[in-house]
Design goal:
By secondary structure, the chain is an alpha/beta fold. It has 8 helices and 10 strands. Bound molecules: adenosine-5'-diphosphate (ADP) and magnesium ion.
């Protein structure tokens, strides 16, 4: 990759306006001084240390960081599946201490009910929350349309492609009308072409319903392309390296992958996560010694 000519902190007036508008939106998720230590058989692991950040309504924030930097632990804490050792995590001002419908989870593995149809999978949440069967089915229909799967209501998960199953997973999470959608490497198992399609779907869904999203990914291009801001973590212990404003206007378009603002941000995030060498060059590091 050529050395970018624009500083990643440089923003056009349109981008500045967009980011200011975002900062004025209410805070949905507020994480303050969060720490997590695991005490296991093999000793103590400080998975997270002094993590603070806020996610605003309608924002898409990505979390990136090396393996073991505590990304999944952080999202599991926000989901209420894990407790904090210190600090706090609040959803709309309320301390998170258990799972709840305010947070929708989408994992890398599909976790759909294989014995239920697409429609039944998506209707499951609303029914559990008290909707009648008819209402839940109507709601399911709405979300199935939003993820572009109309016509597949009666299909079973095994009859669908990986990308389609993941769209059912998104529809199912959205059907509970979460305040925040939590996604842990949701496209990590998909091939490059399907992944690009899923990115387009996610951006389109976000435009349609203005949902707030916290998105973990290994793919730094994906993080920059999709997000308003990128939270980069360091490992051992997992802590904030930098919270980066993405200097790209919305709506995002695939052409932006070659925008100088995209490239400078991508290169910067790459340096934060992998050091001076891009990941694919890491094994060549020994050459420096010769
Ligand atoms: P990431 O998702 O960024 O790869 P994780 O959140 O999965 O990182 O893990 C962060 C660190 O915490 C790792 O060192 C991992 O081994 C440790 N860890 C995660 N969950 C547990 C657990 N339940 N018990 C003990 N250690 C754990
Ligand atoms: Mg993980």
């Amino acid at each position: 990759m050529e050395e970018p000519i624009i500083d990643y902190k440089h923003k056009t007036p349109d981008v500045q306006k967009q980011l200011e508008a975002l900062r004025e939106k209410p805070v949905v998720l507020d994480v303050e001084g969060a720490g997590k230590t695991f005490h296991g058989e093999n000793g103590t692991v400080e998975a997270l240390k002094d993590i603070s950040f806020k996610v605003h309504e309608g924002e898409l924030m990505s979390i990136v960081g090396p393996s073991g930097s505590g990304k999944s632990t952080l999202i599991r804490i926000i989901a209420g599946l894990e407790t904090l050792s210190c600090g706090s995590a609040k959803l709309d001002g309320n301390t998170i201490d258990s799972p709840g419908p305010g947070r929708g989870m989408v994992f890398q593995s599909y976790s759909l009910f294989p014995w239920l149809t697409v429609e039944q999978n998506v209707a499951f949440g609303p029914q559990t929350l008290g909707s009648s069967k008819t209402d839940a089915t109507n709601e399911a229909q709405h979300w199935i349309q939003i993820v572009g799967l109309d016509g597949f209501e009666k299909a079973y998960p095994h009859q669908l492609s990986g990308g389609m199953r993941q769209r059912v997973g998104i529809a199912r999470a959205l059907a509970n009308k979460p305040r925040i959608l939590l996604m842990d490497e949701p496209f990590g198992a998909l091939d490059a072409q399907t992944r690009a399609q899923m990115q387009a779907y996610l951006l389109q869904i976000r435009r349609t319903i203005d949902v707030t999203i916290l998105f973990i990914t290994h793919d730094l291009d994906e993080a920059v392309y999709l997000s308003d801001r990128v939270l980069a973590l360091d490992a051992n212990p997992g802590r904030v390296a930098e919270l980066i404003d993405v200097p790209l206007v919305r709506p995002r378009k695939p052409e932006m992958f070659s925008d100088p603002h995209f490239l400078s941000t991508r290169v910067h995030v790459g340096h934060l996560i992998h050091g001076d060498f891009p990941e694919e060059m890491k094994e060549l590091e020994f050459l420096k010694e010769h």
